[in-house]
Amino acid sequence: MGKVSLKELFLLRTVACLSIVFLHSVDVADSWFFGGLRLFLSFGTPAFILISEIVLANAYPTHTPKGFLKKRLRYIGIPYICFVIIYSLQNTFTLAGKAEISVLATNLVKGFFLGETSAYFVAIIFQFYLLHMFFVRYVFNRFRPKWILIIAGLVNVSYLAFFNLVSPPDHPTAIYVWDTFYRMPFIGWVFYFAVAYYLGRNYVQYLSMLQKYRHYIYASVPLTGIVMLFLFMSDIIPVLSSKRFDMIFFTLSTVFMLLIVAAKLRGVPSLIVKISQCSFGIYLVHPLVLSVIDHFFILPNNMFSAFVLFLFALSGSMGIVVVFNRFSWGSYFIGRIGVGLDLKRPNNRITNEKTQPVN
User: Which residue ranges make up each domain of the chain?
Assistant: First the structure.
C-alpha cells in the first residue's frame, strides 16, 4: 500500500501534545475548576497512543514488513531508554533526596519495567507494535470486527473499572499495583488499539461515516465529559488520571470530533504541522524543561503562571528537538522529527563535505 497523508492526524496529534504539556504546567488542583481542567487534559495520553495504531494500521493493515521492530527500536526504543535513564537520575539525585547507587538501580528497574517515568507511554506503544504483529496475523482476518470491538471494549472497561472502583487490599504491593502498575499491561488500552486499527485500515470510509454522524459525536463530547466530571467530583472515581474507564468514552468522542473538525479545514496551519512533527520529542523532554523552570523561578499557582509555564515548556521542548535533530545522532536520543504533509522529513542535520545527508 502506498503512503497516504492522514492530514487530520496533524491536528489531532498537536492537540494531544498540547494537552499533555498544559496538563503538566497546571499545578493547581485546589478547586473543582482546576481539577476538572486537568482531568479533561488527561485525554492527551490515550489519544497519542491511539494515533500510533491509526498510522500503523493504515500503513500495514495485513502484515508487517521485515525490519519492522528494528526500525522502531532505533528511533523510539533508544530514546525511551535514554529518557528512562535521565528521569531515573533526576529522581535519584535531585528529587528523591537519597543519592545512592542502590536507589538509582531501583529507579531504573521501576522506570524500564514498571513505567515509573513520564516516558512510560512508549512502553505502551511498543506493546501495540507487538499486538499489531500478532493480531494482523492471527485475529483480525479470522473474526468479525463487531465481536473484536465488543470483546476488547468489555475487557478494557472491566479492567479499568476494577482498579477505579475497588479499593486495594491493605498491602504495599497491592497498593502499588492499584496506584501505578495497572496502567502498564496492554489490557488497559486494548479497546483503543482495536478502534484505532479499524479506523486506520479503513480511514477514508470511517472518516466519512464520522462526518455523517457528526451531530451525535459533537453531543457525546460534553455528555461524556460531564459524566466523567461528576464521577470525579463526587469521589466515585477520585483519581485524576487518564487510566479511568470513563476516560475511554471521553477520549474516543474527542478524537472523533477533532478528526471531523480537521477534515473540514481547507489546509493545516504550518505551526500545527511543526508541533505535530516534534510531538514525540516534546512529550519526552517537556517534564525536564518544566523542572528546570521550577528550579530557577518561583511562580504563583494561578492560570496565568500555568500559561507562562506552558509556553516556555512548549517552545523550549521544540527548540531542543530541532537542535538535537541537526546532529546525526540526535534522532536516536530524542526521536526523529516526523513527516510533514508531503510525507517527507525535514533534512536539517549538520553535514560537512565528507558527510552525505541522511534521508
Answer: 8-334
**Nearest CA-CA partner of 337 in 278, 285, 292:** 278
Give the pLDDT of the chain (359 residues) as one tens digit per residue. 445 568 899 999 999 999 999 999 987 656 778 888 999 999 999 999 899 999 999 999 998 988 899 888 888 999 999 999 999 988 888 765 577 888 888 889 988 888 888 888 899 999 999 999 999 999 999 999 999 999 999 999 999 999 999 999 999 989 989 988 898 999 999 999 999 999 999 999 999 999 999 999 999 999 999 999 999 999 999 988 999 999 999 999 999 999 999 999 888 899 999 999 999 999 999 999 999 888 888 777 788 888 999 999 999 999 999 999 999 888 889 988 888 777 777 765 554 434 333 33
Residues with Cβ within 8 Å of residue 104, at least 6 apart in sequence: 88, 89, 92, 93
For residues 56 and 33, what is the distance between their CA atoms, to the nearest angstrom? 37
Identify the sign of the CA torsion 40, 10, 4, 260: positive
Could you tell me which of 86, 161, 96 has the C-alpha nearest to residue 118? 86
